[in-house]
Amino acid sequence: MYGYRLGAIGIVTTFFIIIFSTVLMPMVLFNPKASGRGNDYKVIPLSVGDAARGRQIYVREGCFYCHTQFTRIQDRGYGPLVKEGDYVYETPHQLGTARTGPDLTNEGGRFPSQWQKAHLISPRAVKPGSIMPSFSYLSEQDMNDLVQYIQTLGNKRTVTAFVTPPDEYLPTTPQGRGLAARKTVDTTSDAAANAGRGIYTQNCAACHGLEGKGNGPNAITLEKKPPNLTRDYYKQYPDEHWFYRISEGVTGTRMPRFQSVLTEEQRWYLVAYLKTLPKEHEETIDNLDQLNVVEPTHLPVLTKQVYEPHHGKE
Amino acid sequence: MLAGTEFSLPDLIRGVPQLAMPHLRMWHVNAVAIGWLSMGYVASMFHMIPTLCKCDLYSERLGNFTMWAWNILMIGAFCTLLNGNTEGREYAELGAILDVIVVIGLVAVAFNLYMTIVNRKVKKLYVSLWYFLGSLFWFPLVYVIGQRTFVALPGLNDAIIGWFYGHNILGMWFTTVGVGMMYFLIPRFTKAPLYSHGLSMLGFWGIALFYAPTGTHHITQSPVPEWLKAIAIISSIFLLVPVLTVLTNFFMTMRGKWGMVVTDLPLRFAVTSCMFYLVTCTQGPFQATRWINWYIHFTQWVVGHAHLALLGTFSFILTSSFYYCMPRLTGREWHSQGLIRAHYWLKFLGFTLMMTSLTTAGLVQAAGWALGYPVDQWGLALFPYWFLRAISGFMIVTGQCLFAYNTYKTLFTPRASADSTVKAREVKV
After folding, report:
1. Which of B23, B146, B179, B268 is most buried (most C-beta within 10 Å)?
2. Which residues of chain A does CATH 1.10.760.10 include?
């Protein structure tokens, strides 16, 4: 009988010690203050939809089973890292456990609301290969509210640290050293930049514009605008970062991965060209008047001059 | 002892993801956790505890009451969750009223079983009883803390408590009751005395100490306090101690009796369960470390791990217990040994397939996240694994249907059959 009592006391004490340390202590010690970047749903204006109600729909439809809402250090391209204070208004929490789909921490503003709505109704129409179920059964009001909620996600987060190229592109790793060893192009030479110009015109100008200002004809259709590559910010880009961006594209935008189209040598030419873009003020495109006007093409007069292929080495 | 026949079949399939609505996922988790495992556990305890105490259940009427309460609960859960009436907290989706029913049910069960143990005829408490006693005390408390129905905590605190609950529903209920059942069943099947009572005590106290604080390892990479993460990770690693002692104990008990696995089907279920327990519990501590968590988190690897625990380990031991208890409760032999064998192989092969496909899919996803590629660029690469998982899920459900049919044939009671088969249909979609 004594052993029985001892055991019971043991179970009770152990359990309460654990509850004290892992449940009560965090509640008392861990009280993050609002960081100003999380959304206080009570003060969001009800312009199109009600974000607070949209959040309830997000919960009701169980979106958090496949979409997480916290970014980690290694999540390149998913926006700034989250802080404790970002979550003070999030009850019940929607951190999520598994990512069957992308992280939604900073989803707000990535795509137009119409896109989001189309994506909810028919995911595969706007995102081929997606395995998200269709939520076409939601009512119009539900759908608007949900989209409104999605558009608030992470909108107030500000960028404090910028993305750096992954280690595989830097000379700190064997892969990076291999990449540098294979690089035969002098990215500072005019010849390489000249070679890159043609590649740029064929592959990049449609979105980034002829001068790299982000004003190509396609720019009007993109919610996430192509960047103005003439900005000061891009002048500090090291070669590896340009190369990384060209090779692997930009997550969350329409920028594709050019490594499947261009050879390594061609990409280095492109880097050389991008570095020669003029430095200018920031500019984004919001209306048709600002687009590049397509000029009538003048075919060059045919001569007998022979063009030699360029290899980047002088 | 009517409650002993009460069970519902699990929704062990999630199917091809296009077909599976998140609602189905809520129902799946709750049907497995509350419906299949908890109800089955309570049913087994209603048989095992009186057997170990050599006395009758304290109150038959209370037992029947809990059975009806839980069945009504499951119907309620079915109706609400599939319509999206959820609290939006993983593993704690059930609404306020249903929560109250669960707690009433649990407290009634705990009271009933505690009184049975108080009235026992055997002086010494067998180790299974230690486990059952512990679980029956822990689980109602963990459940009450974990629901957060009537409190609104700010985001991250909510997450901390949520995972305290989310992991302890496993640690303080599924694992402890499951291991208690293994302690009961393996010596019974092999007719050999337990290898060491000292080891079993070490295992029990190890689990009691190290399991409860591990919850935060689910959110290691989120901005919760570092000290809490450290406690969680350290105790996760220490969990290797109770796991290995427990398994050493079982395997030493099995010494010289391994041949029985060929002929004794319930024992085969139990031993498979132990093997999966070994795998899942060696996976767990490593997954909890920061380095592996960095790579593996958010992927289907973790889903595979969860299935390994709930389906591979605890579902198998529960099935074993059903096969053991049912003839002893009803006095009827099983209708067909062939069906049991088919059930075993369908479940075992189906599960192995599921585990392999989930783990591989997890590795593909992990590479995708770690390299920072957009999801749509590697999402299609996962398709074969989703497909394999659907097949495996179908195999497991077929196995369970055979089990239900077998039970029906054995019992010849329309109530049980209606109960179980209807539920199987419902969740298969």
Report:
1. B179
2. 41-152, 167-290
Answer whether residue B284 shows pLDDT above 80. Answer: yes
Distance from CA of B70 to the nearest CA of A (A): 24
- Asked if residue A230 has pLDDT above 90, the reply is no
Q: Which residue of A lies nearest to B370 if distances are taken between CA atoms?
A: A74
Task: Choose, out of A12, A18, A142, A168, the residue to mutate when testing the contact with B (most B CBs < 10 Å).
Answer: A18
Tokens coding B41: 């556990």
A281 pLDDT more than 70:
no
The tens digit of pLDDT for each residue in B153-189 reads: 777 888 888 888 888 888 888 888 888 888 888 888 8
What pTM, to 2 d.p., does this model score? 0.71
Q: Give chain A as a DSSP string.
A: -HHHHHHHHHHHHHHHHHHIIIIIHHHHH--PPP-S-S--GGGS--SSS-HHHHHHHHHHTTGGGT------TT-TTS-SPP-GGGGTT-SS----SB-SS---TT-TTSS-HHHHHHHHH-HHHHSTT--PPP-TTS-HHHHHHHHHHHHHTTTT----S-----GGGSTTSHHHHHHHHH----TTSHHHHHHHHHHHHHHTHHHH-TTSSS--GGGGG-SSPPP-TTSGGGGG--HHHHHHHHHH--TTSS---GGGTS-HHHHHHHHHHHTTSPP-------SGGGSPPPPPP-PPPP-SPPPPPP-S--
Option in B19, B21, B208 nearest A14 (CB): B208
Among B157, B211, B365, B385, most A C-beta atoms within 10 A, so best to mutate, is B157
Q: Which residues contact A294 (CB under 8 A, 6 or more apart)?
A: A217
Residues of A in contact with B307 (CB under 8 A): none
**In which element (H, E) is residue B252 found?**
helix B240-253
**Cα(A227)–Cα(A212) distance, rounded to whole angstroms?**
8
Q: Name the residue facing A75 among B18, B369, B376 (closest C-beta).
A: B369
Distances (CA, A) of A71 to A86, A98, A274, B170, B369: 12, 13, 30, 27, 11
- Identify from B90, B91, B136 which residue to disrupt to test chain A contact, counting A C-beta atoms within 10 A and taking the largest count: B90
For A:210-269, CB contacts with B below 8 A are 248-249, 251-252, 257
Second-level CATH architecture of A41-152: Orthogonal Bundle (1.10)
8 Å CB contact of A65 and B22: yes
ipTM score over 0.85, yes or no: no
Contact B133 A87 (CB under 8 A): no
In terms of CA atoms, which chain A residue is nearest residue B138?
A15
Q: Which CATH number fits domain A167-290: 3.40.50.150, 3.10.580.10, 1.10.760.10, 2.60.260.20?
A: 1.10.760.10
In chain A, what residues touch B153 (CB-CB under 8 Å)?
27, 91
**Which residue type, as a one-letter code, is found at position B14?**
R
Give all domains of chain B, ordered by start, each with its CATH number.
2-428 (1.20.210.10)
Q: Write out chain B residues lying below 8 Å of A251, CB-based.
A: 372-374
**Residue A11, CA distances (Å) to A4, B118, B178, B204, B357 in order:** 11, 17, 18, 10, 39
Do B373 and A251 count as a contact with CB atoms less than 8 A apart? yes
